[in-house]
Amino acid sequence: MPRYRQTTVGDLKNQAVQRRKITDTKRTADPATMEVLCGELPEGNTTVFDRYASQQPQCSFGLTGVCCRNCIQGPCRITPKNDKGICGAADYTIVARNVARLIAGGTSCHSTHGYHIAETVLKVVDGKTSDYSIKDPEKLHAVCKRLGVSTEGKNDEELAREVTLLAFEDFGGHREEPCRWLDTTITQGRREKFRNCNIAPTSIDRTVVGMLDQTAMGQDSDPVNIIFGGLKTALCDYTGMHIATDLQDILFGTPYPVATEANLGVIDADYVNIATHGHNPTLSEMIVEAALQLKGEAEAAGAKGVKVVGICCTGNELIMRQGVALAANKASQEMAVLTGAVDAMIVDVQCIMPATKALAECFHTQFITTASQVKIPGAQHFDFREEDALETAKTMVRMGIEAYGKRKPELIRIPDVKHAAVAGWSTEALMKLFAGVEPEEPVKALNDAILAGELSGVALFAGCNNLRVTQDESHLSIVKELLKENVLVVATGCSAGAFAKAGLLTPGAYREYGGEGLQRFLDRVHEASPTSTGLPAVFHQGSCVDNTRAADLMVAMAEQLGVDTPKVPFVASAPEAMHEKAVSIGSWCVALGMPVHVGVMPPVEGSPLVYSIVTQVAHDVYGGHFILESDAELAAKQLLDALEYRRWKLDVHRATAEKYDADPAASW
Ligand code: BF8
Ligand code: SF4
After folding, report:
1. Topology adopted by domain 419-657
2. What is the mean pLDDT of residues 282-311?
3. pTM of the prediction?
4. Which ligand is closest in space to the CA of residue 465?
5. 277 in ligand 1 pocket by Cβ < 6 Å?
């Protein structure tokens, strides 16, 4: 019987792993980024790679999570000599509190994003802006159906208002029932589990505030209770981002396959290049429109037109819906500026390094901030409002057109590296693909392939770049291993960016990277439901805020199989988790029952108890657990083992249920 667990219960990693010598480390697996890094830097400047090296050695109290700064008697650090903080907090309390607060931080980012989109929808239906409209009434109706909103005799605007008001209740309402976007998108088994464990949130805002309260000095010191509070908060992260994805699809359209390109080579010296960076599509969608409208002005300035390129998750939003080329993921954001051919970088929220602005000062690049909560000293700031979105976007693009004339030709060096990519694989798009084989119940095509042993399961690759490891390397090596073993892979965030940059999203790439079973499956579904774009090796599902698309897929698989989600052969991996958002996503994935690999050690090693809760006990309670493994080869093996274990168990439970004419066993 395959093992789902690591054999080393409580046997913590050798901390030396955390402190590899920076001189021994290859910085990046991305040839374009490497090429730029090997060039000259403007005098006095550094890149994120240099600053990581300068920070070494990093503090081991922080690395292992045993530093508490939750009151100003601290910092208190746990050592062999001092096993308690000044107030008496033990390692397990401090580590659990720190992790829970990371989750609260991540949840705040995603839910603020979702809230902003909800406000935008309301402005649209109230007629306060004419720059946006409801682009996907079909999705609006699907969301209404799911939420139980009657559509009878109501127009799209009325429905959108009703849906948005329900979303506001999930953010800040006072209700006794769990948040609707959580409750209506999960299995009955998960609904009961979350209620029984008292981790079903009733309001996002209330839960995040409650988490800060629970983890304050002199509050909760029980690590299990704190971690349950953390999971409740993580389910708010799920709720907020599901709202964001649904409303973004309603407003900008549900993504379907679209052909484009990725990596720094997409920056074109003949064009005015506008890089959009951050996460929120309300701004970038307008930039795309403004760029189209201002083509003539760019030509008058001597360029061939305006080219919008994407960075980080704004890039992922635009690649999904608009086919805008993706220039960089997180660790390469400075490299885009270093090409010397980005005329304006327009940023919104999250993952924007202040250093990118500093670097832009050495070039002609205009650096523009647009969100009230994200200002960077020295950057041009526009208070972006939906009411005059297109006009503001045009002003910003014009700044890029003006800057185009001020380029320093001697500083331009664009790596000749880019790959064709097909993105736009929302869960709806995947279902459409599967529907060619199973028109009545598309997900059955996927489940049947798993039950027949043609596919090994499904994996979600998500998360960031983290400077502790070689950029993109473990994303690529783990995914290649899984593809070879016939795993269907979906991806989001900077992980999807890494795959796009390396050619795994290129049409037909599944033939190069996929095992025989995966190739056969994709050939079959594509023949039955052809696309004009062709199929990639990895299916890009969007930005970090879109991770519930993968959860929706897992839930659909579970419901078709007649089991709860922990039984579905579905795993997740965040090889380079970095942001607080990655911690919250990983945590709700565990609560939903996924084995979740994290390739960079999170700060839990300081407490053997917390370490074993997240890697072992979580499985007993929720069916999901963390696999904390920095070695890519071992990680791939553990993910494949987890899938094998689930397939084996699913087979046994299904065969037994059939024999006794009963439902499959509820246990996992
Ligand atoms: O939200 S994957 S580095 S860009 S946090 Fe950031 Fe991480 Fe990239 Fe997108 Ni997500
Ligand atoms: Fe130290 Fe306790 Fe204050 Fe934390 S809360 S800093 S452990 S006294």
Report:
1. Rossmann fold (3.40.50)
2. 98
3. 0.96
4. 1
5. no
